Amino acid sequence: MPHRKLVGKIKRKEAVVGIIGMGYVGLPLAREFLLADYRVTGFDIDPEKVSRLNRGVSYIKHIPSTFIKKYGKKGMFEATDDFSRLASVDAIILCVPTPLGRHREPDLSYVIDTTLKIREHLRKGHVVILESTTYPGTTDEEMLPLLLEAGLTVGRDFFLGYSPEREDPGNREYTARTIPKVVAGITERCLTVVDHLYRQVVVSTVPVSSTRVAEGSKLLENIYRAVNIALVNEMKVIFDRMGVDIWEVIGAASTKPFGFQPFYPGPGLGGHCIPIDPFYLTWKAKEYGINTKFIELSGEINTNMPFFVVQKTARALNAKGKSLKGSRILLLGMAYKPDIDDLRESPTLHIMKLLEEEGAVVDYNDPYIPRLYRMRKFSYDKESVPVTAANIKKYDAVIISTAHSAYDYEAVKRHAKLIIDTRNATGVTGTVAGKVWKA
Ligand SMILES: NC(=O)c1ccc[n+]([C@@H]2O[C@H](COP(=O)([O-])OP(=O)(O)OC[C@H]3O[C@@H](n4cnc5c(N)ncnc54)[C@H](O)[C@@H]3O)[C@@H](O)[C@H]2O)c1
Fold first, then answer.
1. Residue 397 Cα, ligand 1 centroid: separation in angstroms?
2. Which of 402, 308, 384 is nearest to 346 (CA)?
3. Could you tell which of 89, 272, 340 is best to mutate to test the pocket of ligand 1, judged by most ligand atoms within 8 Å of the CB?
4. What is the pLDDT of residues 356-388, one digit of tens each?
5. Bridge partners (DSSP) listed for residue 362
6. DSSP H stretches of helix in 74-210
7. CB distance 176 to 167 below 8 Å
8. Fewer CB atoms < 10 Å away: N or C end of the chain?
9. Which ligand 1 atom is at minimum distance from the Cα of 168?
10. pLDDT value at position 272?
11. Could you give the CA distance from residue 165 to residue 186 in angstroms, rounded to a whole number?
C-alpha cells in the first residue's frame, strides 16, 4: 500500500521533502523540515535564488545565512531549478505565488505551470500539497485533473492535499512550527498522508473534511483582517473629523474582556496577502452569481488611506503656512509592516508617489530597505537616508508610515519640525498634539 509505505517513510524521517517556490513561505517551511531532520530540496525558477541558497546566502531577514550554510554542508539541503529532480523527492509542497492579474482576477499561472511540471515526474508514492492561498476548488478542480493525466490514481498511487500557509513575517511570538496547521486531502488516505507529514513539524494539525474547506479557511482568515482593518480605517476618518483620537478609542474599547478584538488603522493595506487574497473569493463567487460586497467595500476604504495621509500632510503643512509643493518630506518606514524587509504592495510607495505628484521633495528611511528598486507598479531610484538629528531637522515634515521598532521616536519627536503619525508611534494623545498630527 503506497500510503502506508509513505507514512512509514515520513515517520522514520526517510522521506525527502521537495518545496517548490523558495520565497517568504517556502524558505521558512524548508527550515522547519530541516530542523526536524528531513532532507529538503528547494525548487525555484529563479536561478539567482537557487545560486544564493547553494552558496549559503539567505535573502530573508529572519532566516540566517549560517543556518542555510550549515544544512547545505551537512548535505541535508540543496536548491535547484532542475525539476526532473522532483522524481527523487517523496513530498512535493507548492509555495508559489498566487497574485492578481491586470483585472484583479486570480492569476493561477504559477500553480498551473508547477502542476504541469509535477505531472511530468509524478510517480507512485508521491504526496503533492498546495500551500499557496487560493479560492475553494483550486486543488480539486484545477490541479487534480492535470495530475490524473499522468495515469495514476489519486488516493491509491499518489496523494494530493491542501494546507494553507499561516506565515506571519516579523512575528516573534509565532513561527511556522508553533502555528497550528489546517490540513486536507482529496481522499481520506490523502488526508492521512498530509496530516502525518505536517505533524512532524508543527505543534498541531487541524484536519478538515475537504480541500475546499481548507482553502476557504485561509480566505476567511485574511478577509476577516481586511474587513476589520477597513472598519477601523473608516472609523479613523470619521473620528478624525470630530477631533477624536481613534487610537485612544481603540485602547478604551479593548478593555472589554469579551466580544471585542482590536484592529489598528494605518496608511493602507500592504503585503502579499491581505490586499490580494480577498479578490480570489470575489472572482470565484461570481461563478455562483454572488457579489462580495464586504470585500469590495473594504478594498475601497483601504486603498483610499494613502490619499487621507497625503491630505493630512497638506493640512498640517498649511497650518504652518507651507504647501506640499516644494516641501521636503521624509518617510519613515517603507516596508508594509514593522520589522520586516518586504515592500510588496506597501501603501507607503503609493504615498511617495502622491506626494511627488504634488511637487513635494521626498526622501525615505528604512533600516531594512537600503535602496528602492524597480517594481511592477512603482519605479523609484532612491537610497535610504540616515535618521540623524541633523538630517531630521532638514525636513519640513516627517511621516511615520511604518513603525519599525528600531526607530527612536522620542528623538524623532525632539528633532522633527512636523510629524504625521499614521501608526500612533509617537504615543501622543489627540488628533493634533503640538507638532504631531495623527493620520
Ligand atoms: N508571505 C506571506 O506572509 C504569506 C503568508 C501566507 C500565505 N502566503 C501565500 O503563499 C504563496 C507564496 O507566497 P510567498 O510570499 O512565499 O511568495 P514569494 O514571491 O516570496 O515566493 C515565491 C517563490 O516562488 C518562485 N516561483 C515562481 N514561480 C515558480 C515556479 N513556476 N516554479 C518554482 N518556483 C517558482 C519565485 O521565484 C519565488 O522565489 C502565495 O500564495 C501567498 O499568497 C504568503
1. 36
2. 402
3. 272
4. 999 999 999 999 999 998 887 888 999 999 999
5. 329
6. 109-121, 144-148, 188-199
7. yes
8. N
9. 3
10. 82
11. 18
Tell me the average pLDDT across 302-310: 97
pLDDT in tens, 386-403: 999 999 999 999 999 999
pLDDT digits 0-9 by tens, 37-80? 999 999 999 999 999 999 999 988 889 999 999 999 999 999 99
Atom of ligand 1 minimally distant from the CA of 133? 41
| Cell numbers describing residue 34 | 530541516
| Short-list 83, 399, 98, 439, CA closest to 246 | 439
- pLDDT the model gives residue 428: 96
Residue 374, pLDDT score: 82
Atom of ligand 1 nearest to the CA of 43: 33
Under a CB-based contact definition with an 8 Å cutoff, are residues 278 and 219 in contact? yes
DSSP summary character for residue 266: -
Place of cell 532532507: 39
Taking the centre of ligand 1 as the mean of its atom positions, its distance from the CA of residue 96, in whole angstroms, is: 4
Give, rounded to a whole angstrom, the gap between the first and last alpha carbons of the chain.
61
DSSP letter string, 213-243: HHHHHHHHHHHHHHHHHHHHHHHHHHHHHHT
Shortest CA distance to 364 belongs to which of 345, 325, 392, 326?
392
Distance 145 CA to ligand 1 centre (A): 23
Nearest residue to 112 (alpha-carbon basis) of 211, 216, 20, 213: 20
- The answer to whether 350 and 268 are in contact (CB under 8 A) is yes
Residue partners of 111: CB distance under 8 A and separation at least 6: 94, 96, 98, 130, 132, 134, 138, 142, 143
- List, for residues 1-26, the tens digit of each pLDDT value: 688 999 999 999 999 999 999 998 99
Closest by CA to 196, choosing from 183, 178, 212, is 183
Asked if residue 28 lies in contact with residue 136, where contact means CB atoms within 8 angstroms, the answer is no
Residue 116: how many other CB atoms lie within 10 Å: 14
Rounded to the nearest angstrom, the distance between the alpha carbon of 26 and the centre of ligand 1 is 7
Mean of the pLDDT values across residues 221-237? 97
| Residues tagged active-site | 273
Q: Is 298 helix (H, G, I), strand (E, B) or coil?
A: helix
Give, for ligand 1, the residue of 93, 95, 376 to mutate: max count of ligand atoms closer than 8 Å to Cβ.
Answer: 95
